Structure formats: structure tokens, C-alpha cells
Amino acid sequence: MSLTSESIIIYIEITVYLLIVLGIGVYFSRKEMKSSDYFLGGEKIPGWVLAFSERATAESAYMFLGAVGFIYLAGLSGIWLLFGMFFGIIFSWVFLSKKFFQERKKYNVFTLPDYFAVKYPKHGTIIRLLSAIIMGAFSLFYIAGQFSGTGKTLYSISGVDITIGTIVVAAIVIAYSCMGGFLSVVWTDAVQSALMVLAFIIVPIAAFIEIQQSDLSISASLASMGNGGDQWFGGLSGLVLGAMLLTNFSWFFGFLGGQPQLSTRFMAIKNEKELKTARWVAILWTIVVYIGAFLVGIFGSVLYKSDTIADAEMILPYMVSELLPPWIAGIIIAAILSAIMSTASSQLLVVMTSVSEDIIHRTMGIKAGERGILKITRITGIVSGILGIIISLLSESFVGGVVGFAWAGIGNTFSVVVLLTFFWKKTSGIGVIATIITGFFSAIIWTLSPLEAIVSARAGTFFVCLVVGIVFSLLYPDDKSAVEATV
After folding, report:
1. pTM of the entire predicted model
2. What average pLDDT score do residues 113-126 get?
3. Are 408 and 446 within 8 A, CB to CB?
């Protein structure tokens, strides 16, 4: 984008947004914090803020770019993708959030790996170490993917060099994440989450007005797509329809408590009153954003043929630049960056806590005091962030592959562990270890195999892990008396 009055307005608004989130990090860095504050907010965060944070973190750039782009190409049948995620979100907030809140208070833990370790003390060390390494490793590459997304987004919209855009935004994410820890990440998420809601209200309205003014028929335009775009099941039937629905619904399984960056929001809630508030805020937020995302994709397919842009995932930024005045476009672009940055900062926090709290402090037993632990955590965050930048700039194709199965490798694997731990008393430490190892390898093998073309690894990994967890728990049960003595 050439330096015009319109582009200057957009640049100014993006700069103001970046300064605001950086300012939040500076604000919390000046507060006296204990490790409980830095890792989990110290029960100081309102429920509605945690709900906003969980929603912004969960959706990331996928909702703005991936999901909208998918609906843009698929038409009405793209709604099943949103249904899979929506039901997962409802399940997690209705059935899991209270359990996370209660278990965190009962066992006084800050992280998901530490919770698993405390629940299965006989095998606690290996469970904590395995969980922390796998969560931290996948999260590192997830961070790299998000950093790469910021660079590409800025380039596609404003022409900013990808390398410069990636480094600048990544540096700001690293700064506010390390300075204020969980507190600064959650409060910046709240700002970012509000921008995301605003975007999915404004863009569909602007697109609908354009459709009316252009006298276009939505039904006729969808029918002309030629791929069943005007049909809710995409013109599919039989086994093909079943595979399509299962693949889209497979996102459901990743929301069942296994994503550490999401489950920590449940763990941070301070009482049941705040939990109820957070639950309703999260559900309403999801309804508004998901309806908006679906309408953006559908209206985009009406206004612009599939060959209008080279990359379907950039349909939303393209619509923003075509339909909105610069001062509104700048806000929407900031919202897209918000989605990416909120996920990147939360994933960075996962890496920081996995290394400093779960590995160095708990597993290795290194005692460094409150200040020492926070110092180690911040150093870990800086190093991890720099590694994420390097990977994003040098290995884009590799990052894309890792991000593709990270949902299965972390979310679906640990969702099984969470569900078995919460709801099946016969779950054993050996069963948990077997589930974690199986999930790691099955996510990779399934993704790279021909099976991925039939059923997504997101569904496959979940059911494979579930079977393994049950079988190994039955074959190698825990000594109940030993477990009860430690609780």
C-alpha cells in the first residue's frame, strides 16, 4: 500500500492499538507480584474478563482467516465447522469450567501438568515432565505460526515487509507477556476480544448493505458456485456426507479441557458467582462472533467470485479494504491482529510456565524464591519468543504442518486425559502416560497418513487416545490406598 492519507489513518490506528496492549504490560509489570499472580492471576481477575480472554485465545486467526475463508469457498455447508466448535465451547463452559475451578482450589496448582501430577502422585514426575515437554514444544511452533500470520496479514493489507511486521508485532507480544504474565495477557485479551466482536458486527452489516445496493440475489449467487454452496450439506450424501460432518465436528474434541491456554482461564476464576457470569459472557460472545463469521463468509461468496483473490483465507481483509472507510478499516485490521496476538501471548505463557514451573521448579526441584522463579520465567519467555520468531521466518512450511496437527497433539490428547481424570475413577497414572505418548505419535502419524483425507486427525487422535487410556488404566490400575493417602 502506497503512503496515502487512507493508509496513514490505518497505520496510526494500528500503532495506537499496539501501544495500548504494550501499555497494559507495562502497567502490570510495575505491580508487586507473587508467582500465583504471574502464573494464574492470583484470583484478582473478574469472570467476564476471563471469559473474554478465553474466547479471544481460542479463536485466534483461524476464525478471521481460516474459518471465514472455508465458508467463503464451501457456502452454506461451512456452518457445520462452526457447529463443531460451538458445541465444544458450550460443553467446556457448562460441564468442565466448574470442575477446573474446584480442582485448582482443592490441589492448589497453577498448571495443567502439575494438576495431573498431583492427581497421580506415584507417576507424578514422569506425567508432569511428559505433559510439560509436549505442551511446551507444540506451543512453541504454534507461536511461530501466529507470528508468521501477523507478518502475512500486515503485508497483505498494508504492504509492510513480512519480516519487519513479524518482528515488530512479535516483540510487543513477548514484551507484554513477560512483563505482566497472566494478568497482562488476560487484560490485553479483553481489549482484543472486544475488537473481535466489533469486527464481526461491522463487516457483515457493511457487506449486506453492499449486496442490497448491488441488487444481488444471495440464493442465486450461492447456487452459481457450482459446488453445492446453496445446500446445507453441500450436495453430499452417504459415507461422504458422514466423513464431512465428522471432520467438521472433530473440532469439538479439542475444546474438552485439553488446551492449557484455555483451561487456565477456568482455573483462574475466583468464585462460583464469577464463574456463572463468565459462562454467560462466553456463550453470548461465541453466538455473536460465530453468526458474524458465517455471514461474512456467505456474503463474501456473494460479492466476490472464488477467483477474485489468490488466497481464500484473505477474503475478510479484502472485504474490509473494499467495503469500509479507512478509519473503520484500521479498527478491523487491529481486530485481526488481536486474534493472532491473543493466541500467541497465551501460547507463550504456556511455554513459560511449562519450562519454569513444571520442569525447572517442580520436576528438577530447583528452589529460587519468588523473585528467582519470576526471573527464570521471564527469561524463558524471551528465549521462547525469539525462537518463535526465528522459526516463523525460516521454516514457514514446517510451521504450517505443525500448527495443522497441534490441535490434535495437544487439545485432543489432553482432552482425553482431562475427561478420564474428571469423570472416571478407574483412570490410572500408567493410563495417563500411555494416553499422552499415544496422542503425541498418533497425531503426527495420522496427519501424515492417507487417513487424514478420510477423517481428520482431530477425531482420530481423540478416539485412539480414549481407547488406550481406558485399556491401560484397566490393565495397570493405581493402588487406591496409596493415592488416597496423598490427597
Report:
1. 0.91
2. 94
3. yes
